[in-house]
TrEMBL record:
Signal peptide: none annotated. Residues 12-127 form the Response regulatory domain. Pfam families: AAA_lid_14, HTH_8, Response_reg, Sigma54_activat. One of its GO terms (biological process) is phosphorelay signal transduction system. It comes from Polymorphum gilvum (strain LMG 25793 / CGMCC 1.9160 / SL003B-26A1). This is Nif-specific regulatory protein. Required for activation of most nif operons, which are directly involved in nitrogen fixation. One of its GO terms (molecular function) is sequence-specific DNA binding. Interacts with sigma-54. Residues 160-389 form the Sigma-54 factor interaction domain. Keywords: Activator, ATP-binding, DNA-binding, Nucleotide-binding, Phosphoprotein, Transcription, Transcription regulation, Two-component regulatory system.
């Protein structure tokens, strides 16, 4: 069909449509392609098509949305052929359907019955535009995002914003890791997007129909951690008033994301290891083994090899988990991403808060670019939100920036030095008995920082130059001390 001599390479076309008549109509369009076109392969069975996409070349994929089970299912196909032109067709065409299909990874959309010319023109146009691979599709809270399509000016990958070389490499790794069932080990400073990364791996995997269950090992008191992961039976401990499934069971068929895994205590690490080795576990207080099929993704903002060397993390567990490692670089090492992120947050929060902000003036932009962002993307996100709530546009100006950022941290440091000097002076005249214990001083300092950032732990941690998990841990130790 439509073969033309002298073309460099065949164009591989696959068409999935439960209606043989419609599939054949779509196939005839290939005759119109100017490129050499291998005979299109027609499928009526979604599984056969998915299998072929996994290991055979595909340049054009025409998918009938009714056959694949709706626009949400489209991402599973898009993931398997990230370089193919995908045209979604549907007898139930509507604007929202078209938008959803594009979000899920389609390049274009046609309502049935379509004219052969219309389909031919769309395929032709898309093939012409396809000069370089586009990132795999994902969406806000789900698969695929229209912003990642073939515009050539993309600044985003799914819910991620930023196309710095370091992040493009991360997106590539996510795309490759997603279809595997192996554990993913995410490292990176607080606020660099580790949870976003875990969610992206889940969304692009075959497990996306299952649940994505997150457990933050730093935020849960240590004595409750085991029951949070593995569940408990009624009466297993004081307060266990009923039987409850844990996160592992909830993630059956899906993904279990263990955030801040470095905070898990050694005894529980052994139980997690057993679970990884055998797929079985017991609810707390129960003696029967249970089996689940959950993919494990974990994240830490610590250096895992240093934790192993220090004996705080079991080496055998580390090697079980550290199968597919991915590192998220801090924002200060990918400054190209700062303004695209800032603009994306500004657009989102201005719309949410009903403000007329349109952009940043040159001075504000220069400061944002120069600042070191110790709290990474989360700190940038919270900063823009705070500015939008407290001011109005059209432009974010230098005076709207928090002092910490306006002065590059210099004046804030000077204020800290000044406080320290004043304390030193006061100390000389204080009797011994009035000296505040270290833990109480620490508590005051941390609570002051939390107040300054409206209780936002990540921002307070960034300003104090400690990790958020330190704040969680300290809080737990204060409450134990005061009990
Ligand atoms: N590249 C990005 N594009 C858009 N938003 C991002 C990006 N990276 C992070 N964010 C946003 O920043 C915030 C922090 O991200 P996330 O929770 O994934 O970080 P984290 O590394 O898991 O942090 P922590 O270690 O403190 O748990 C979230 O609101 C997330 O949506």
């Amino acid at each position: 069909m439509g073969s033309q001599q002298g073309q460099a390479r065949s164009v591989h076309v696959r068409i999935l449509d439960a209606s043989p008549a419609d599939a054949t109509r779509a196939a005839t369009v290939c005759a119109k392609l100017s490129a050499d076109c291998a005979d299109p392969v027609l499928y009526s069975d979604p599984k056969a098509c998915l299998d072929a996409l996994a290991d055979q070349p595909t340049d054009v994929l025409i998918l009938d949305l009714e056959t694949i089970g709706g626009d949400e299912a489209l991402a599973r196909y898009a993931v398997r052929c990230p370089r193919a032109v995908i045209i979604a067709v549907s007898a139930r065409g509507s604007v929202s359907r078209a938008v959803n299909a594009m979000r899920a990874g389609a390049h274009d959309f046609l309502t049935k019955p379509f004219s052969l010319d219309a389909l031919g023109d769309k395929v032709q146009a898309q093939l012409g535009m396809r000069r370089k691979p586009r990132p795999a599709p994902m969406a806000e809270g789900g698969p695929a995002d229209a912003r990642t399509l073939q515009t050539g000016t993309t600044e985003a990958f799914g819910r991620f914003v930023g196309m710095s070389p370091a992040m493009v490499s991360v997106y590539d790794q996510i795309r490759r890791m997603a279809p595997s069932g192996a554990p993913v080990f995410i490292t990176g400073e607080s606020g660099t997007g580790k949870e976003l990364c875990a969610q992206a791996v889940h969304d692009l995997s075959d497990r996306r129909g299952g649940r994505f269950v997150t457990l933050n090992c730093a935020a849960i008191p240590r004595d409750l951690m085991e029951s949070e992961i593995f569940g408990h039976v009624r009466g297993a401990f004081t307060g266990a008033v009923d039987t409850r499934a844990g996160a592992a069971e909830q993630a059956d068929g899906g993904t279990l994301f263990l955030d801040e895994i470095g905070e898990m205590e050694i005894a529980l690490q052994s139980k997690l290891l057993r679970f990884l080795q055998t797929g079985t576990f017991q609810r707390l207080g129960d003696s029967s083994d249970r089996t689940v099929d959950a993919r494990i993704i974990c994240a830490t903002n610590r250096d895992p090899t240093a934790e192993v060397a220090a004996g705080r993390f079991r080496e055998d567990l580390f090697y079980r988990l550290h199968v597919l490692p991915v590192h998220l670089p801090p924002l200060r090492e990918r400054r190209d991403d700062i303004m695209p992120l800032a603009r994306a947050f500004l657009a989102r929060f201005a719309a949410q808060e009903g403000r007329s902000f349109k952009g940043f003036d040159a001075d504000a932009q220069a400061r944002l670019l120069a600042y070191s962002w110790p709290g990474n993307v989360r700190q940038l996100e919270n900063t823009i939100r705070q500015i939008v709530v407290m001011n109005d546009g059209p432009a974010i100006t230098l005076d709207m920036l928090p002092m910490l950022i306006r002065d590059g941290g210099g004046r804030a440091r000077a204020a800290a030095d000044d406080t320290r000097d004043r304390h030193r002076m006061a100390r000389q005249s204080r009797p011994f008995a009035t000296i505040e214990p270290l833990w109480a001083q620490e508590r005051r300092i941390i609570e002051d920082a939390l107040d300054a950032f409206d209780g936002n732990i990540a921002m307070a941690a960034a300003a104090l130059e400690i990790s958020p998990s330190t704040i969680y841990r300290k809080r737990q130790s204060w409450s134990e001390r005061l009990q």
